[in-house]
Amino acid sequence: MSRARRPGRLRRLTHTALLTLGLLGTGLVGAAEARTVRIVSADTLELRRLDEQELVVISGENVELRVDDDVVRAKRVEFNRTRRTLTLVGAATYRSAKDGQVLAGENLVVDLGDEQVTGQDVLISDDDLEIRGQEIERIPGQLRATGGYFTTCARCGRTPNDYAFRAERLIVYPGDRLVAYRAQLLLADVPVLFLPVVVLPLNDPERQPRLQIGQGAPDGLTVEADLPFSIGASTLGTTLIRYYQNRNPSVGFGVALRSYAPLPFVDRVNLYTLVSPRPFVGTVQQVGDDLDLDFSVTGRVPLSLALRDLDYTLSVTRRDIGRPLTDPERGVTSVNFGAKVDYPLFTAELNYVDRYGPAPTTGLGTPLRTPEVVLDPKPYTRGNFSADVRFSAGRYTGQSNPLSRSASAQGVNITTTRLEESHTLAYTAQPWRNADLSLSNTFSGRYYGTGARTVQLNLGAQLTQRFNVTNTLSASAGYSRTEGTSPFAFDADGRSPRRISAPLGLTLSTVPVRDVRFGVSYTRDLFLTPDQQRPATFTLDVTRVPLNLNSQLTYNPLSKELESFSYSATLSDPQSGARTLVPAQPARPASADTPAAPARGAYYSRSSRWPAPNLTLSANGSYARATGFAPFTLRATVTGDARTNSFSVYATHNIQKPQLDEVGVTISASPTQDTVLNPVSFTASEKLFVPTGRVVGDVKIIWRSRYQFSTTHDLLLTRPATATDSGTVTYSVGTVSGSANAWQVTYGGPYDLVRGGFTRPTLSGSLSATRPDQRLALSAAVNVAGLDQPRTELARADLDANWQFGSRAALSGRALYTRTRSGTYPADVATDTLQLDPVRFSVGIGRQGERPGAYVTASLRQSFTWVDGVRQNPTPLSPVLGLTIDRCCWALQAEADLGLKRYRLSVGLPGQTQYPLFDLIGTGFEVPLLPTRP
User: Fold this and answer.
1) Do the beta carbons of residue 829 and residue 821 sit within 8 Å?
2) Residues near 50 by beta carbon (within 8 Å), at least 6 away in sequence
3) What would the pLDDT profile of 358-408 be if each residue is shown by its tens digit?
4) Between residues 499 and 619, which one has the greater pLDDT?
5) Cis omega (within 30 of 0) for bond into 249
6) Which residue of 201, 348, 604, 861 has the smallest Cβ count within 10 Å?
7) What DSSP character marks residue 922?
8) What residues are paired with 165 via a beta bridge?
């Protein structure tokens, strides 16, 4: 086949493949849980029928299929539609997206029904380990192999592997653990040890096997062990063992397990239970056990006529461990069961919430439902009418409503039955042109076994008439009735037991002229007194250039009082100086729908007559009858020809007092010589708080977006007689933050306007430089002599550096020096502190061109103190030497603290932190796994 014909043939093959698999997918929806097979690349597609079985043969140099999110790569794939299997002929790979595993082997078979993958001489790899097996079978949640070989060192890239295992049979639970039976331990591929079973954890550290041994008062020797196990192919668990030497009893035990689909109609079971000896209270020994229990079941039950399976959940919990003996929740077991089913005409629920143990002595925040049945018919719609109804009934125990005397008389909690019915009815219509009518009725009634009842009824009607397009008039009427008191606190609204209202409302929204909108709304309740009625609301919005006005007024027509008023107005039109050409219009004769129009010549128009295009004026204020006038703010902003240049002034006037509260100015300027990077930008602001005489401002100048000068001040023009300064003033120059190389120098501090100088000024500077594999940060602060500070001296210096010399050596460290003074000048005493936190040097050891396999480190973490120049508690330097052997699949760490004369050794495996082997100190030798006796 020629190259010119090949692309067209591939397009036809791809189209045929997609169409064919789309048709075949119809038969996979029910039995294969709708797994989708997509062809990504292929050369040929052939349909066959062999022994009453339908086959689709897909072949090519690089065949790639997607089974949902899984990826299949091979040179030939046989899709058996009858058995719903994919056979990968020859060398092929199957990548599981869920587990992150890659299966590589010969003649792999993929079952689309139960998601199984089988094959011979298969290599499986993921981020944690590598597995080889003579026969491999993969099913969801499990992988089995016979004649298997596995190691966690494959990712290291070294041959032979540091350690590995060969087993007759192994089972992998992805993301949890690997279990190997009759296994040999191989060191550098040499057998050294036979083990009947090996368990390798693959999950999070908190779910891995754990053994912790300790000793201390008052429990004495303590042992905590978590040992994993598995039952069959679907249940994984951990045995919990606890031993406390001095408790009575001494041994505690428990189990934590999870099971996937252990029984029909059960999806998952979780169980955590622990029986632990009671701890000491001070020095007093408690006799007995505490119990923690957390049991949950979720599942589904298929029903023939239901839209979906019946879903149910069951949970049983109890928490005693860690609770004081006086805790009211101690010994309480909570049970929560829920089931829900969905039928074409309705949905139904069954809920059961209960507790067993001591009777509650306080109010129950969550009510008990023993049981509750909920029936919710599907909404009914016919034309413009709709109805939604819901029923619930049950026996409840909950906190008593304090507003119900009969309920409160029975105690903090009350138990009784309750029947609830609620519905919503709605109807919409158009009685005439441009009119909309809506009617609604909502009702909720609760009836209790004590004889009490609560009713909430709402009736509403609204008629809206539209005039033209922008004018509407709406009239509304409603009736609301609430009565009764619930004996339960969880469904009480806490308001008056009987409320009635009948609001009548009228709303008008109109556009009297172009760009002006006016609205008025008023509501009157027939059951409220005149002094309880809400005021009428008037709104006026103007959006005609150059004016933009938003205002609102509320007025009570019964008391004839103005309740509130607010406004915000802006005068601005940046385009008022520009003229727009309006083309000429020829004469138009009269027609049946439009009158005649004379000819009109061309002319220029402006958006408005605003005389100052660069000027913007704004004002805002408000009034409330309860609080009076709010401060009035007037602002004027002048913008230059370049939008980056602006000058703004404002003033805030307190009408209540009356007085001027605040005035301010803001300036922003930037020349436009460069459209991308302007040479200089300038911003400044100044605020004066008139009543207090406080001045706050800042100035910032940036050059070429790299360097900036800034100054800030916050001063009281008239400081109190008891104060030593008027505020603060600072000056700063340096680079813009975020640069790879940055520096900054700052001078300033408290400033006194009366004496005319800084009282306690500080000169500080910082320098940071970043290069590939290099980083340097240096900062220092100097106390400069001022009115209240007689000395100039270094107060703080900080050095933080990191250098990487290739891939073999690195130097890093931080040194911090501080000086403080105590006492009165000139007899004050200086205290100097130098902290090394830490200084570290490391060297990598290994073959040239390979990743280092070991690291030697030396670190110094120490603090030095001088008082009036005299070293305090002089001690020699105490470096810590370390050796780390990193072999990817295991690591060994040794540490020697020469100052404390302490030596440690620890080992780490994949997925685990470093585990200490021994600890040698000056007073003796300690093995963490073995307790020591005093």
Assistant:
1) yes
2) none
3) 989 889 989 999 999 999 999 999 999 999 999 999 999 999 998 888 998
4) 619
5) yes
6) 604
7) T
8) 150, 185
- Residue 452 has what pLDDT? 92
- Overall size of the chain counted in residues: 934
Of 4-13, 490-499, 589-598, least confident by mean pLDDT is 4-13
Task: Supply 721's token pair.
Answer: 């007689």
| Burial state string for 448-471 with b = 16 or more CB within 10 A and e = fewer than 16 | bebebebebebbbebbbbeeeeee
Each residue of 36-50: pLDDT tens digit?
A: 788 888 888 888 877
For residue 701, give every residue at least 6 positions away whose Cβ sits within 8 Å of its Cβ, in sequence order, or none.
Answer: 680, 681, 682, 708, 709, 710
Tell me which residue of 390, 389, 446, 443 sits closest to 416, measured CA to CA. Answer: 446
Distance CA 100, CA 115 (A): 15
Strand runs labelled E in 97-208: 101-111, 116-125, 130-139, 142-151, 163-173, 177-187, 190-201
Smallest CA-to-CA distance from 58 within 35, 74, 36, 34 is with 74
Tokens 């100190």 sit on residue: 921
Instruction: Say if strands 413-429 and 924-926 run parallel, antiparallel, or are unpaired.
Output: unpaired
The secondary structure of 789-810, three-state, reads ECCCEEEEEEEEEEEEECCCEE
Residue whose structure tokens are 């009157």: 524
Three-state DSSP class for 643?
coil
What residues have CB less than 8 Å from 122, skipping those under 6 apart?
Answer: 103, 104, 105, 108, 132, 133, 135, 136, 145
708, two tokens = 């900036």
Contacts of 827 (CB under 8 A, 6+ apart): none
Q: Are strands 680-689 and 380-382 parallel, antiparallel or unpaired?
A: unpaired
DSSP 8-state secondary structure symbol assigned to residue 677:
S
- H helix and E strand count, the chain: 2, 59
Burial of 235 (0-12, 13-18, 19+ CB in 10 A): middle
| Residue 160 preceded by cis peptide, ω within 30 | yes
What are the structure tokens assigned to 487, written together? 């004996």
**To the nearest whole number, what is the mean pLDDT of the chain?**
85
Concatenated DSSP letters of 373-431: EEEEEPPEEETTEEEEEEEEEEEEEEEBPTT-HHHHTT-SEEEEEEEEEEEEEEEEE--
Does the bond joining 611 to the residue before it have cis omega, within 30 degrees of 0? no
Residue pair 86/65 in contact (Cβ under 8 Å)? The answer is yes
Using DSSP, state whether 22 is helix, strand or coil. helix
DSSP 61-110: EEEEEEETTEEEEEEEEEEETTTTEEEEEEEEEEEETTTTEEEEEEEEEE
Q: Check pLDDT > 80 for residue 20.
A: no
> What does R_g of the chain's alpha carbons equal in angstroms?
41
Distance CA 563, CA 516 (A): 24
Q: How far apart are the first and last CA of the chain?
A: 88
CB-based contact 426:388 (threshold 8 Å): no
- The strand pairing partners of 809, in sequence order, are 805, 843
Residue 701 in contact with residue 708, Cβ under 8 Å?
Answer: yes
Question: Please, is 236 exposed, middle or buried when counting C-beta atoms within 10 Å of its C-beta (0-12, 13-18, 19+)?
Answer: buried
Measure the CA dihedral 367/368/370/371, to 10°: 50
DSSP three-state, residue 653: strand
**Residue 11 — φ and ψ, nearest 5°?**
-60, -45
- Quick count: other Cβ atoms within 10 Å of Cβ 653? 19
Torsion of CA 382, 388, 389, 392, to 10 degrees: 150
Cα–Cα distance measured from residue 45 to residue 23, given in angstroms and rounded to the nearest whole number:
14
Q: Classify 685 as helix, strand or coil.
A: strand
